[in-house]
Amino acid sequence: MLEFIQQPWTSWVSGALIAGIMFLLLFFGQSFGFSSNLRTICSAAGGGKFVKFFDFNWRSQIWNLMFLIGAVLGGFIANQFLSNGQPVQISQNTISDLATLGIAPPTSAQPDELFSIEYMFTLKGFLILAVGGLLVGFGSRYAGGCTSGHAISGLSNLQLPSLIAVIGFFIGGLIMTFVLLPLIL
Amino acid sequence: MKFLKFLILGTLFGIVMAKSEAFSWFRIQEMFRFQSFHMYGIIGTGVTLGVIGVALIKKYKLRDIKGNPILFYPKEKSTARYLIGGTIFGLGWALSGACPGPMVVNIGYGYMAMIIVFVFAIIGTYLFGIIKNKLPH
User: Fold this and answer.
1) Partner of A75 at 20 to 30 A CA spacing, among B12, B104, B128, B135?
2) Between A and B, how many CB-CB pairs are < 8 A?
């Protein structure tokens, strides 16, 4: 049984579980949207004194911060107890394409070329991580949501704004993948 | 403890993100290169079941645990903010290989470099708050 769970989970099982999480959050009187936590953290850190956007009752969002802490815990549990140590099984085409960018085939879940501790302390390595984070944080709040809020919750409720946001996610993602990454890496 | 259920749901979310490999930079690259159905299968299944479930909740006017009706609020109408904001988000998603949820899952998994990504995502949100009123909406 454990061996079965330790394999990577099929996409439809994972998708069904994500929908299940969304419905349980609705049943508990909340909604699925992870990036709101970033705004909540800004507010809890006192940002509301300087910027009106962060002046709200962040304590009403503690439930979502608990969800965030759970997500950290889930990552820890997955690695410690539910992993079979195999690298991610991406397609051969992706492996070849990434090789031309200087990224070696997977040996774990993340490429050492971007996420190793040594690389993180180089100027270029630090800038890639920092700029990536800045864009995600800025863009998710500008668009009013991230993958969970728009692609899952919003599309489930057939919201046109969410569809526009998801199209935006792909415009940005494709520009980064095919135009900018070859220049950066 | 009223928050325990959210901690447990978050834990399940973290496990799913890791075990589905959706938290991997490699999987996000594969998705944007359209070289595997994997990520589309995850999001597609989630949305398909989501659409059916939300329609059922509306049709049968289902209530939440406290007995309040489960309501859905339409998102504010606009094109510019969703398209521009979404594009900025997508640039970051493909670069760091993680949206906000998977960032913290990576930290728990042991990828400490993601702490930098997450801290800068908070800073990015703060910058948005500062210049929000000067941006097209």
Assistant:
1) B128
2) 489
Indicate the Cα dihedral angle B107, B110, B111, B114, nearest 10°.
20
Evaluate whether B19 touches A123 at the Cβ level (below 8 Å): no
Q: Which residues of B touch A12 (CB under 8 A)?
A: 41-42, 45
* CB distance B100 to A42 below 8 Å: no
The answer to whether the CB of B53 falls within 8 A of the CB of A138 is no
pTM equals 0.97
Write out pLDDT tens, residues B6-46.
999 999 999 999 999 999 999 999 999 999 999 999 999 99
Instruction: Tell me, yes or no, if A40 comes closer than 8 A to chain B by beta carbon.
Output: no
B-chain residues near A77 (CB < 8 A): 11, 14-15, 108
Burial class (CB in 10 A: 0-12, 13-18, 19+), A165: buried
Asked whether A8 and B21 are in contact (CB, 8 A), the reply is yes
- CB spacing of B14 vs A159 below 8 angstroms: no
Chain A window 7-36: which residues touch B at a Cβ cutoff of 8 Å?
8-19, 21-30, 34-35
Q: Give backbone dihedrals phi and psi of B69, rounded to 5 degrees, phi first.
A: -60, 140
Note whether A166 and A151 are within 8 A (CB).
yes
Domain boundary assignment for chain A? 7-86
- With contacts defined as CB-CB under 8 Å, which chain A residues touch B60? none
Give the closest of A27, A41, A126 to B122, CB-based.
Answer: A41
- What are all long-range contacts of A101-105, with beta carbons under 8 Å and residues at least 24 apart? A101/A181, A101/A182, A101/A185, A102/A185, A103/A185
Where residue B102 falls among pLDDT bands split at 50, 70, 90?
A: very high
Whether A72 and chain B come into contact, CB under 8 Å, resolves to yes
> What is the tens place of the pLDDT at every residue in A104-148?
999 999 999 999 999 999 999 999 999 999 999 999 999 999 999
